[in-house]
């Protein structure tokens, strides 16, 4: 799109007045003076005002945004100019939005906010002669390879030199002729990066185009090269694991090995880790112990709880060590860490030296990373080997991993089970007389230690019989720390639960709504069975389901199968697709659904799916929104986008009120 000079009818809309600084200047001009061949719409552009280049957004259409008299306007982004100009030179880069049937200036202003953000991402420098391209290592021109952020494009061809004239006698590159522009190397979307390098195109004083490389381009080369090398090495490659462990050592050195002065409790497992971490933390605080916790859902220091912004069970070694140092600065003596199999294998939790290591359970998950179930369990067993024969193991005697972990040396072993033990070795916990209640669960807890048996009622005010197993694991950790089991059990009576884990959402609706972090097939089975026990006889269970992208495809049909067997209404929707095709994931979950046993629906947009499932619910029914839990973002191909399912559910239910 060519550069044209525009003459203004009324130069300034906001902040007018000679000599007055215009913080957010907006210019309007005659429609007939606009660049030829433009259809109505909003465009990203560069604006030359008295020799200074500003990024801007141009509105061109029958209705004005800011002024009733203007049919064409330019909103200059992040700029301050003094005297109103009588003319500007504008270079239109690309179209952002069509303009059709706008509801009015007020509504259009709200839409413009999004357009301005988009334009700022595209026009991220204030020099209209600078064009950044992601090119192969040897350099090359932009021809045919450029694409704006968020739009798929093919890779540019390679060239033989890293500094050269653009072919065609110095004419403008094809990317500019096509109106495609991306400024600032950081704004290059990952899907456009093919090979290494970042080459820039710049227009010289003579009007010709040359290519050059900058420091940012060299840094980008390095980062891309590291990414390519990682693809060549398997997850378990010794070189790659050594790099991970060196990072852990560096982080521990940087923060002064803070775990040396803390009593660390590490908790791993497939399901229930976050809830168990919350229970252990609750027990510690009930005994007046200064402690902190790091989990998938939250960071906690004493009674101060904040969301985990990384949404990773075991974040980077720097994050872990920095958190432990923060605990020391707050005079904490104990730390509860949720440990993932990825984090254990990659050494993110190295140099934490746990005194107590516990596991909730193991089931089919993350086999795309670990390969086999045996390898998955062995990788989780790293946590128990970190005890170095001196700490305390807390094991689930009902889990398939029990035999493997029992043989790992430790000072003491605490086991827990749903069944009475067959021997009297060590400290053992089990429950009898288990009941599920509308507002919780209860059982009788038995503890056998040193040949003596103790009995205590175990009462929870959070739903789900599976939480009784999590509670036994938490009490086992407390017993391992020397806390009286009766005090630990009593402390759990007022445990409020963890947000996003079987959290009940109540906005006065005549049916029950729960938000849960259910992701594995076993978790779906336990959760839906627990929900059936909470649902009045003759009423229905409605489940919103899906599956995460970029991992373990084989579980998707299993999730669909379990939902169709245990729920009355199943709605399959988008979850966290990452870089996969969301519709493909939905189809794979859908393939496992037995439509003869349930009422099934497939709705791509998760927001629409939530509204739909609420509209299907009748008084007395139970609705559960699975997978997102306490997450505050959703992972899509372009990165993270805001998504708080708990708040979305509340707002949607409020809108349903008569």
Helix-strand blueprint:
Blueprint: E1 3-7, E2 26-29, E3 41-49, E4 52-60, E5 72-76, E6 87-98, H1 105-122, E7 130-133, H2 174-177, E8 199-203, E9 209-212, H3 215-232, H4 238-254, E10 263-268, H5 273-286, E11 291-294, E12 298-301, E13 304-307, H6 317-329, E14 334-338, H7 341-345, E15 356-359, H8 367-370, H9 373-380, H10 382-385, E16 392-396, H11 402-406, E17 412-417, E18 427-437, E19 440-449, E20 452-460, H12 466-480, H13 485-491, E21 503-504, E22 512-516, H14 521-534, E23 541-545, H15 555-566, E24 569-572, H16 582-590, E25 599-602, H17 606-616, E26 622-626, E27 633-636, E28 639-642, H18 645-655
Parallel strand pairs: 10-14, 10-15, 11-14, 15-16, 16-17, 17-18, 22-26, 23-24, 23-26, 24-25
Antiparallel strand pairs: 1-6, 2-5, 3-4, 3-6, 4-5, 7-8, 8-9, 11-12, 12-13, 18-19, 19-20, 21-22, 27-28
Helix pairs in contact: 4-6, 5-12, 5-13, 14-15, 15-16, 17-18
Query: What percentage of the residues does DSSP assign to strands (E)?
Result: 15-25%
Task: Give the oligomeric state.
Answer: single chain
In angstroms, what separates the terminal alpha carbons?
A: 52 Å
How many strand units? 28
Low confidence ranges: 1-24, 30-34, 64-70, 78-82, 101-106, 124-217
Q: Give the helix tally.
A: 18
Q: Summarize the biggest pleated sheet.
A: 11 strands, mixed
Q: Into which percent range does the helicity of residues fall?
A: 25-40%
What is the topology, as strand order, of the major beta sheet?
Answer: 13-12-11-14-10-15-16-17-18-19-20
The global form is globular
């Amino acid at each position: 799109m060519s550069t044209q000079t525009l003459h203004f009818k009324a130069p300034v809309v906001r902040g007018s007045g000679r000599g007055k600084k215009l913080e957010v200047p907006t210019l309007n001009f005659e429609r007939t003076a606009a660049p030829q061949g433009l259809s109505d719409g909003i465009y990203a552009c560069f604006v030359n005002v008295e020799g200074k280049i500003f990024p801007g957004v141009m509105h061109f259409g029958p209705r004005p945004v800011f002024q009733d008299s203007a049919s064409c306007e330019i909103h200059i982004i992040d700029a301050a100019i003094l005297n109103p100009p009588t003319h500007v030179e504008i270079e239109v880069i690309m179209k952002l939005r069509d303009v059709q049937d706008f509801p009015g200036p007020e509504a259009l202003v709200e839409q413009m906010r999004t357009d301005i953000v988009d334009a700022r991402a595209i026009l991220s420098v204030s020099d209209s002669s600078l064009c950044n391209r992601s090119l192969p290592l040897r350099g090359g021109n932009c021809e045919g390879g450029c694409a704006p952020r968020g739009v798929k494009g093919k890779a540019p061809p390679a060239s033989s030199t890293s500094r050269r004239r653009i072919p065609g006698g110095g004419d403008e590159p094809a990317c500019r002729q096509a109106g495609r522009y991306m400024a600032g190397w950081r704004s290059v979307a990952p899907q456009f990066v093919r090979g290494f390098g970042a080459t820039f195109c710049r227009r010289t004083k003579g009007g010709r185009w040359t290519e050059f490389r900058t420091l940012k381009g060299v840094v980008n080369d390095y980062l891309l090269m590291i990414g390519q090398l990682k693809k060549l090495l398997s997850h378990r490659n010794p070189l790659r694991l050594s790099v991970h462990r060196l990072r852990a050592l560096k982080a521990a050195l940087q923060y002064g090995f803070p775990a040396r002065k803390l009593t660390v409790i590490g908790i791993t497992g497939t399901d229930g880790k976050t809830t168990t971490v919350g229970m252990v933390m609750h027990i510690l605080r009930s005994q007046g112990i200064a402690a902190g916790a790091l989990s998938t859902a939250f960071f906690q220091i004493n009674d101060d709880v904040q969301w985990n912004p990384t949404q990773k069970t075991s974040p980077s070694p720097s994050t872990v060590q920095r958190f432990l140092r923060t605990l020391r600065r707050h005079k904490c003596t104990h730390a509860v860490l949720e440990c993932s199999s990825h984090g254990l294998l990659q050494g993110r939790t190295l140099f934490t030296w746990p005194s107590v290591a516990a596991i909730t359970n193991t089931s089919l998950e993350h086999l795309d990373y670990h390969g086999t179930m045996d390898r998955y369990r062995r990788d989780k067993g790293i946590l128990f080997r970190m005890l170095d024969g001196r700490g305390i193991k807390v094991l689930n005697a009902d889990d398939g991993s029990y035999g493997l972990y029992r043989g790992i040396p430790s000072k003491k072993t605490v086991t827990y089970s749903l069944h009475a033990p067959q021997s009297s070795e060590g400290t053992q916990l089990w429950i009898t007389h288990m009941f599920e209640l509308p507002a919780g669960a209860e059982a009788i807890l038995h503890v056998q230690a040193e040949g003596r048996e103790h009995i205590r009622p175990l009462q929870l005010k959070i739903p789900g019989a599976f939480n009784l197993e999590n509670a036994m694991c938490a009490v086992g950790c407390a017993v391992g720390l020397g806390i009286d089991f009766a005090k630990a059990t009593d402390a759990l009576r007022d445990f409020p639960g963890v947000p996003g884990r079987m959290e009940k959402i109540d906005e006065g609706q005549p049916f029950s709504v729960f938000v849960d972090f259910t992701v594995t097939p076993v978790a779906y089975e336990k959760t839906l069975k627990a929900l059936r026990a909470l649902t009045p006889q003759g009423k229905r269970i409605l489940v919103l389901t899906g599956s995460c992208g970029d991992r373990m495809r084989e579980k998707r049909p299993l999730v669909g199968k379990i939902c169709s067997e245990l729920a009355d209404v199943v709605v399959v929707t988008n979850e966290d697709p990452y870089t996969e095709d969301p519709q493909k994931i939905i189809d794979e979950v859908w393939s496992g659904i037995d439509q003869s046993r349930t009422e099934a629906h497939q709705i791509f947009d998760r927001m629409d799916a939530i509204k739909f499932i609420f509209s299907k619910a009748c008084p007395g029914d139970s609705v559960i929104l699975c997978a997102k839990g306490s997450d505050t973002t959703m992972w899509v191909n372009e990165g993270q986008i805001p998504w708080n399912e708990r708040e979305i559910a509340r707002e949607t239910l409020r809108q349903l009120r008569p």
